[in-house]
Design a protein that fits this description.
The protein is built from no helices and 13 strands. The chain has about 180 residues and is an all-beta fold.
């Protein structure tokens, strides 16, 4: 007698091999990070802000043990006022709360938008209208920040959609 067993293994916490492939034309986006459009030149993906988050940059921007983590646009403020939305692909197995912020110069010039983390174990994509960042001067964005808990994987973060007749200007992305 021969017995066959089918074993299905799932690597928990590793996430899928790749994030969704964006479809926007490269000339119509301002990429912050991602493999398709590249990383923004002069961006600091692990500024020393006193956070306990373990940030790992690679094909994805992985935030382990998230409390908060930022991206500082050290090469200069971004003028994203001509774009319509901020696109983010994200994946989590264990987070119950994640917010994304855009921050402009000045005192308390930031607005948080909550990501829907109720669907875990798969990549999720969101286009956040820039109008949602009500306290932010979109012509002077100096930082992006994430806060929450658990581990979150981020990919393909870019400004897209052309609201004002052409893409905004910013430093060129790097490969």
């Amino acid at each position: 007698e021969v017995l066959f067993y089918w074993v299905s293994l799932r690597w928990v916490g590793a996430g899928p091999a790749t994030a969704p492939e964006p479809t926007a034309a490269a000339g119509d986006v301002l990429s912050v990070f991602g493999t398709t459009y590249g990383n923004l030149a002069g961006a600091n993906f692990d500024p020393a802000w006193g956070q306990t988050t373990d940030a790992v940059a690679g094909d994805e921007y992985v935030l382990n043990n998230l409390d908060y983590q930022g991206v500082a646009f050290d090469a200069g403020a971004l003028d994203v006022s001509a774009y319509e939305y901020l696109h983010v692909d994200y994946y989590t197995d264990d987070s119950t709360a994640v917010n994304v912020f855009l921050i402009s110069s000045g005192t308390s010039e930031e607005t948080a938008v909550a990501l829907d983390v109720t669907t875990t174990g798969q990549w999720n994509s969101v286009d956040i209208p820039l109008a949602s960042f009500t306290a932010v001067n979109l012509a002077d964005v100096i930082q992006m920040k994430f806060d929450g808990n658990g581990t979150i994987r981020l990919a393909n973060s870019y400004f897209g959609g052309v609201a004002g007749g052409g893409p905004a200007t910013a430093p060129e992305p790097t490969a």
